[in-house]
Amino acid sequence: MSTFIATFVVLMVFFLLMSVGYLVKKKAVEGSCGGLGVLGIEKACDCDDPCDKRKRRMAKEEERNEKLAKNRII
């Protein structure tokens, strides 16, 4: 039982450190390979003309980002 508790505590410490790192850097956790950006792909859907569903989602994201930028305190 003590091994389980020690493992749980260590795991929670790592989660705490990762969350503090996110709050300080304002940067999402990403893989070591760099993801799709390394390949020159700006988005997961790399089509020239996105479908209507993708266009609506992109519009919502843009609207949300504008609201966040407008209401940002810092």
Automatic annotation (TrEMBL):
InterPro entries: NqrM (IPR007495). The chain crosses the membrane at residues 6-24. Pfam families: NqrM (PF04400). It comes from the Bacteria. Keywords: Membrane, Transmembrane, Transmembrane helix. The keyword Transmembrane helix applies. PANTHER family: (NA+)-NQR MATURATION NQRM, EXPORTED PROTEIN. This is Na(+)-translocating NADH-quinone reductase subunit E. It comes from Shewanella denitrificans (strain OS217 / ATCC BAA-1090 / DSM 15013).
